[in-house]
Amino acid sequence: MSPVIQIAGLGKRYASGHRALKNIDLEIRKGEIFALLGPNGAGKTTLISIVCGIVTPSEGTVQADGHDIQTDYREARAKIGLVPQELTTDAFETVLATVTFSRGLYGKPPNPAFVEKVLRDLSLWDKRKSKIMELSGGMKRRMMIAKALSHEPEILFLDEPTAGVDVELRRDMWRLVRSLRDNGVTIILTTHYIEEAEDMADRIGVIIQGELILVEEKASLMKKLGKKQLTLNLAEPMSEIPSVLGEWSLELKDEGNELLYVFDANAERTGIPSLLRQMSDLGIAFKDLNTEQSSLEDIFVSLISERRES
């Protein structure tokens, strides 16, 4: 797929001297769902704000569908929809008037049928005559999404879109996101709910301390960095691990009733057969065993820990 967003050498330094972004290079493909993960203060929102033309970069270039965000701002911005973290809406306007007005801001001709479809997709049609100030927090979040979609953008940024919202909205939102992606819209999201990224994203980017340290296909990332863990349910509880088992870096769990072994499933030798033989020689019996793959959250936490230690 051809890139719809091209970021090269992007950096941001604030007047205080703080470097929010450092030499970011990133291409996002047309029609993909790209998840940007990182701890608070990592630079996620700054990066999104620059691409959307809200914050001016200190260096580097950004193009949205071939349009430079600084020299060709109007055309670039017309391609982009943004759902920010903060709920900033005109409290005294109605839902329908706000979404219709937002569409007009981008020079789009009136299209009542399209606006109605967006509001219905977001379960807002019954609230179309309500003032924004009368809406609940979840409905205001839906309202922000409707505004972002009003001008039919080809690129949609979702900055922590489901933070603090109910399960129903989260489910509706992801159903809508999948529908948009199926129609060719490129989705870039930041989220604290890593299971959402694991479920939704085609590719994952990890940003820490203003640096993009990893961009990877989700499946490839899980295979490359994911570990597996073997859990042995012991027949008798164990107070300590025998020193002869030290080479396997085992861990006791559940008050000594479980023995945990983390291993690389892609390695030529996992060490499991030799571990089980050694346990048998020592007379350590187990009732059951199971293995499970590391989650994306495990990988993310591991990356952050490695970064902080380096």
From TrEMBL:
SUPFAM superfamilies: P-loop containing nucleoside triphosphate hydrolases. It comes from the Bacteria. Pfam families: ABC_tran (PF00005). Keywords: ATP-binding, Nucleotide-binding, Transport. Residues 5-234 form the ABC transporter domain. The keyword ATP-binding applies. GO terms for molecular function: ATP binding. Signal peptide: none annotated. This is ABC transporter ATP-binding protein.
